[in-house]
């Protein structure tokens, strides 16, 4: 009986090369899906809003050392400005502590004024056409800059602690009209300013 001619041999289905190719395709598909999938956003850490005595104390300490509330609330773990104002309105003990810290800040600013005044001034050299030094003068731009720094601290210290750093002015002065002084009770004035700020924010 004649032999049936055999056709060409088919490549084995489960060769090592085929297996490696299948694995590579599978990995590519997984990587493609992972790339298309949106990356879950990290949950932002919210600023504390509930009153915390420790945080309130830290705020007051930093204020007394000369920092502004604007800079403090930017720090990690600190409440925002509106929360601080709310704490001041709702917690009298914090309001008193905050007021004392502001008064102590006035003393810190006064110390900074002395330190600024004691700094060595910046100078500029006056030269001729050949580059020879003819004179050395204090930089006028530096003087204006230092004056602004001192004036800002002086004004703030006067407002925070007027009895110590404010300018006294008496008007009138007879039996029926006692002298009027520009001094104000800093704690009462500060609390009134904070209350007005909070009311304005709520109205807006």
Report what the structure shows.
The protein has 204 residues and is mainly α. It is built from eight helices and four strands, in the order H-H-H-H-H-E-E-H-H-E-E-H. The protein has a two-stranded antiparallel ribbon with strand order 1-2. It has a two-stranded antiparallel sheet with strand order 3-4.
Strand content: 5-15%
Radius of gyration: 36 Å
- What global shape is seen? flat
Q: Main beta sheet, described? A: 2 strands, antiparallel
Give the averaged pLDDT, no decimals.
75
- Which class do the helix and strand fractions yield? mainly alpha
End-to-end distance, in Å?
Answer: 105 Å
Counted by DSSP, the helix tally is 8
Order of helices and strands: HHHHHEEHHEEH
Strand order of the largest sheet: 1-2
The helicity comes to 55-70%
Number of strands: 4
Record the SSE blueprint.
Blueprint: H1 16-36, H2 53-64, H3 69-72, H4 81-90, H5 92-117, E1 123-127, E2 133-138, H6 140-160, H7 162-165, E3 170-171, E4 180-181, H8 186-203
Antiparallel strand pairs: 1-2, 3-4
Please give a quick description of this structure.
The protein is mainly alpha-helical and 204 residues long. The chain has 8 helices and 4 strands; from the N terminus they run αααααββααββα.
Defining traits:
204 residues, mainly alpha, two-stranded antiparallel ribbon, 57% helix, flat
